[in-house]
Amino acid sequence: MSTTTDPQGGTFRLSMLLNDSRYRSLTLQAIAAIMLAASIAYMISNLLANLAAQDLNISFEFLGSPAGYDINQTLIDYSSQSSNLRAAFVGIINTLLVAVLACITATILGVFAGVLRLSNNWLVRKLMSFYVEIFRNIPVLIWIIIIFTIVTAVLPGARAYLGEDPERNMLAGMFAFTNRGVYVPAPFFTTGFGGEEGSGLNWLLVIGVLIASFFATRFVTAGADKKQAETGIRPNTLYLNLAIWIVPVAIVLFILGLSWDLPDPLANRFNLRGGLQIGAPLIALWLALSVYTGAFIAENVRAGIQAVSRGQTEAASALGLRPNRTMSLVILPQALRVIIPPLISQYLNITKNSSLAIAVGYADITATLGGITLNQTGRAIECVLLLMLFYLTISLLISAFMNVYNNSMKLKER
Amino acid sequence: MNKSVLFGALTVAGLAAGAAAAATLDDVKARGTLNCGVTTGLVGFAAPDANGEWKGFDVAVCRAVAAAVLGDATAVEFVPTTGKTRFTALASGEIDMLARNTTWTFSRDVDLKFDFVGVNYYDGQGFMVPKALGVSSAKDLDGATVCIQTGTTTELNLADFFRANNISYEPVPIETNAEGTQQYLAGACDTYTTDASGLAATRATFENPGDHMLLPEIVSKEPLGPLVRHGDSEWGDIVRWTLNALIAAEELGVTSTNVGEMATSTNNPEVARLLGTEGTLGEMIGLDADWAKRAIETQGNYGEIFAQNIGEETPIGLARGLNAQWTDGGLLYSPPFR
Ligand SMILES: N[C@@H](CCC(=O)N[C@@H](CS)C(=O)NCC(=O)O)C(=O)O
After folding, report:
1. Does B167 touch chain A (CB under 8 A)?
2. Domain range for residue B92?
3. Which of B88, B108, B137, B155 to mutate to test the interface with A (most CBs of A within 10 A)?
4. How far is CA A15 from CA A19, A34, A250, B162, B210, in A?
5. How many angstroms is it from A375 CA to the middle of ligand 1?
6. Residue-wise pLDDT tens digits, B49-90
7. Residue B80 C-alpha to ligand 1 middle, in angstroms?
8. Which end of chain A is more exposed for a tag (fewer CB within 10 A), N or C?
9. ipTM score assigned to the predicted complex
10. Are the Cβ atoms of B2 and A51 closer than 8 angstroms?
11. pLDDT mean over B122-139
C-alpha cells in the first residue's frame, strides 16, 4: 500500500478513508478537529460543573457596582465611587497611552539605531551594536524595575521642591523632577468651550485644525509636484507649508485663550500641586518598553536596509544623490517593505508587554480590571475573560491597521 | 497565545474545583503535611527566621492545627501569599487553610465563599509617617502620597476615609509588605497604611524605628483570623476549635509547661474535656483524644503565643488591648468545650 497507488474503479469503501491517499489527510484532519472540539467542550463543561459545585456562577454584574478603590493616574473622571467598568476604562486608556507612547519612541529609537548600526563610523557602529545586544538580551521586566529604581533613587523627594525657600528650584520655574514623577506646565484654555472648567471640545478643535493643516500641506505639495513635472522647476513650498501648519493653530489657541498651569510648590505640604504630572511608573514603563523594543526594531531596520541590493545605492550615487538623500529617498522606502511585517509584531509586543505595568504600580488594565477589581470582587474568570478579549481585540486591530499600511507600501505589480 | 491562556484558565478552574470538593482532612492526612498560606514575610506574624524556619503569631496557628491533626507541629508546608494571591490559593486548594492577617468581611465570607473560623487578632487600620513630616493626625494628610498593599481591605478603607473627610491623596499600589517598606523608606510615599499591628511589626524592622510614628486614628475594624474554603465544615470545625482551644487554654490557665500535669491531675471538668482525659470531644471532631493537648503543648496557649511573637517584651511591643481575654476586659471569648 504505497501512497501513490491510485485505486481502480468507482466504488467507495469505508476503508478507503484511511487507505486511499486521496482521502487520508482529510480523514486525519477531521479526526483532529473533532478531538479538539471535544476537548474544548469537555473543558468548558468541566469548568461549568465545577463552578456549580463550588456554588459559583459566571456573572458580569460586578462591572456595574462601585469599585471602591482609587487610581493614581486617571485620564477620565474617576473616583472610588465609580463603577468597576469605569475603573476598567481608566485602565484601558492607561494601557493605550503607554503603548502608543512606547510605540512612537521605540520606532524612532529603532530606526536611528538600525541605520547607525550600518554607519561607516566604527565607534557609532559599535555603540549601536552594544545598545542592541544589551537591551535585547535582558528581559523587559528587569528593565522596567531597573529604570523605576533609578528614577526613585536618583531623583530628589517631592518635598525638596516645596515651600517658600525650597532646597531645589524648579527648572525655569516650570519643571520639577521628583522621585514620584516629573511635573511640567499643563496647557489649559481660559476662554474656550466650557469656560474656566474647560472641556474636551477645545482639544478636539485644536486637533481638527491640525488635521486640516495636514491635508492643506499635502495639497500644496501635490501642486508643487505637478509644477515640477510640468516645468522641471520645483517651487519652494517650505515657507507656505510652515505657515499652514503654524498660523491657523496659533489663531485658534489664541482665541481659546491658551494658558499654562505651572506646578505650585506652595499649595500642599506633601506634593507639588497643579501642572501635568508624569508619574514615575509611567516614565519607567514607557522608557523600558521603548529601549527594549527599540533594540528589536533596530535589528528589523538593519535587516530591511541590508535586503535592498547594493546596486540601488550605487545607482543613486551615480545619479548624483548625496548619501542622506540616498537613504531617505531610495533605500528606506524599499526597506520598509521588509521592515513593516516584523514591526507589526513589535507593536503587538509593546501592547502585550505593557501588562507588566503592575510591577511598578502603573494602573493599566491588568492592574485595574485584572488586579484590584478581580481581587476585591473575586470574579477571576470573568475578569480574565474580559482581559483576554481586550488584548485580543487590540492586537487584531493593530495587525489589521498595519496590514493596510503594509499593503499600501507593497511593491505595486503592474 | 491567547488560546493557551484560555485553556490554562479553564484547566486551572477545573482542577481547582476538583480539589476543593474533596475532604480536606483526608487529604492532609494522606499527604502527611498541612499546606498553610501565610504572608510573604511580616516579622512577628509570619516570617522565616535566621535558620529559615517560619516563626510568628499566624504561623503558630498553622502549627497548632498540624499538631492537632497530624501529631507533628513541624509537618507544615508554608506557602507565602500576597494580598492578591491568597484567596486564589485557598479557593484552588493549593493551601488547606489561610492564616495571613486576613480581615473577616461580609463579602469574603459570603461572596468569595470562605469560612472564617474565628478571630486571632482584633485590629484596625492605621497610618505610619516619618516624624520629620510633622503630621499629627491622619486628617492632615490632604494631598499626601500613600503606599497601600493591593487586594486588601486597606485599599478600600483608605478610599472611604479620604472621601469621608473630603481630602485627597495619591495611592501607590504595592504587592508585598517588603516592597511597601522599601518604597516608604525611599520616600516614594509620605505615609504607609495597613493594619496597625502590621505597621508596628514593620516599624520594628526599621534601622531607626524611633524616626517613625503611628498616627492616632484607627480608621477601620480589622478582625484578623484564619479561614478555610466553604463547603467542608468538618475541616472548618477542626481549625475553628484548634484556635478556640488555644484561647480557652489561656482562660483556663493551661500552658505549654503545665499541660501534661494538668491533663492528669486537673479537677476542672472543662480542662479535662479540653485535654481529652474526659469525654469524647476528640472523637466527635474526627481526631484522637489528645488533639488539643498537642496543640497547646507545642505552641503554648494564646497568651504565650502572643507574648512570644508580638507582645510587649518583643521589639514589636504590642499591648494586649482588645486581644485580652474577656475576663480581663478584652474581646477573646472561646465558646465552652463541652
Ligand atoms: N487585613 C487586611 C490587610 C492584610 C495585609 O495585607 N497585611 C499586610 C501588612 S499588615 C501583610 O500582612 N503583609 C505581608 C505580606 O506582604 O506578605 C486584609 O485582610 O485585607
Report:
1. no
2. 23-122+223-328
3. B155
4. 6, 19, 80, 76, 86
5. 14
6. 999 999 999 999 999 999 999 999 999 999 999 988 899 899
7. 12
8. C
9. 0.81
10. no
11. 94
A367 chain-B contacts, CB cut-off 8 A: 150, 173
Same domain flag for B113 and B227: yes
Beta carbons of B151 and A81 less than 8 Å apart: no
Does residue A404 surpass a pLDDT of 70?
yes
Among A35, A58, A69, A395, the strongest candidate for a mutation testing the B interface, having the largest count of B CBs within 10 A, is A69
Burial profile B65-78: b = 16 or more Cβ within 10 angstroms, e = fewer: bbbbbbeebebbeb
Instruction: Report which of B105, B117, B78 is spatially closest to residue B243, judged by C-alpha positions.
Output: B117
Buried b / exposed e over B263-284, threshold 16 CB at 10 Å, is beebeeebbbbbbbbebebbee
Residue B40 covered by a domain: yes
Long-range (24+ apart) CB contacts under 8 A made by A45-49 are: A46/B10, A46/B14, A47/A381, A47/B10, A47/B13, A47/B14, A49/B17
CA distance A283 to A294: 16
pTM of the model: 0.84
Nearest to A371 by CA among A360, A352, A385, A384: A384
**Ligand 1 lined by B176 (C-beta under 6 Å):** yes
* Structural domain ending residue among the three candidates B201, B220, B239: B220
Please report, as a single letter, which amino acid is at residue B36: C
* CA-to-CA separations, A14 to A8, A20, A23, in angstroms, rounded: 15, 10, 10
Q: Are B115 and B109 in contact (CB under 8 A)?
A: yes
Angle at A332 between CA A329 and CA A334, to 5 degrees: 95
* Pairing assessment for the beta strands B144-149 and B191-195 based on DSSP bridges: parallel
Q: Do B169 and B289 lie in a common domain? A: no
Contact A86/B at CB under 8 A: no
Task: Report yes or no: B296 and B254 within 8 Å, Cβ to Cβ.
Answer: yes
For residues B193 and B247, membership in a common domain is answered with no
The pLDDT of residue B37 is: 96
Residues B181, B299 within the same domain: no
How far is Cα B33 from Cα B73, in angstroms, rounded to an integer? 10
CATH of the domain at B131: 3.40.190.10
Asked whether residue B137 falls in the same domain as residue B169, the answer is yes
What single-letter amino acid sits at A334? Q
Domain total for chain B? 2
User: Do B312 and B185 share a structural domain?
Assistant: no
One domain for residues B215 and B229: no
Contact A56/B163, CB-based, under 8 Å? no
> How many other C-beta atoms are found inside a 10 Å radius of the C-beta of residue A394?
18
* pLDDT reading at B152 higher than 70: yes
